[in-house]
Amino acid sequence: MGRWVDQDGDAERLPEGFTRIGYDADTQTYTYQDANGRTWEGEEGNRYGRLHPAGQRRPSLTPSEVASHNESLKRSNRESVRMMLPFDVLKALLRFKSKKETPAGKSEKPMVWV
Q1: Nearest in space to 73 (alpha carbons), one of 90, 30, 81
Q2: Torsions phi, psi of 30, nearest 5?
Q3: 48-59: per-residue pLDDT in tens?
Q4: Structural domain includes residue 84
Q5: Does residue 34 lie in a domain region?
Q6: Record's superkingdom (predicted)?
Q7: Is residue 96 in a domain?
Q8: Domain of 64?
Q9: Of 9, 69, 82, 111, whose Cβ has the fewest other Cβ atoms within 10 Å?
């Protein structure tokens, strides 16, 4: 069992008095209700995060928020490439080694199964 399994529920992540009451698969948004009975919606694709009153227009992101988000995506992509690079190097070395092992002047024909 994971370390933080007890902290992954609605009780730990939602504000006091909020309960999750639904999910819209078309818009990928969760719907919540507060203690006063008002309905709230989450951001698209997020289980938790900013909540907005249901039916109201959501505030648009500022240019600085968009730039910050784009920068975090670039940083994440760089980390992914850095993590996969050793495997790609190993794969290239194995390919190079397998090509060197074939005798010179002897061409191998691919096997065809009928």
Answers
A1: 81
A2: -90, 150
A3: 888 889 988 777
A4: no
A5: yes
A6: Eukaryota
A7: no
A8: 1-78
A9: 111
- Report in angstroms the alpha-carbon separations of 35 from 15, 38, 55, 64: 10, 8, 18, 34
Q: How many structural domains compose the chain? A: 1
Q: Locate 100 and state its tokens.
A: 């060197």
Query: Is 23 strand, coil or helix?
Result: strand
Q: Look-up: residue for tokens 């249901």? A: 54
Record the tokens describing residue 112, joined without a space. Answer: 């065809």
3-state secondary structure the chain: CCCCHHHCCHHHHCCCCCEEEEEECCCCEEEEECCCCCEEEECCCCCCCCEEECCCCCCCCCHHHHHHHHHHHHHHHHHHHHHHHHHHHHHHHHHHHHHHCCCCCCCCCCCCCC
CA–CA separation, 18 and 9 (whole Å): 12
The residue written with tokens 């370390």 in the block is 3
3-state secondary structure of 111: coil
pLDDT in tens, 8-42: 677 778 888 999 999 999 988 999 999 999 999 98
**Residue 39 host element (H or E):** strand 39-42
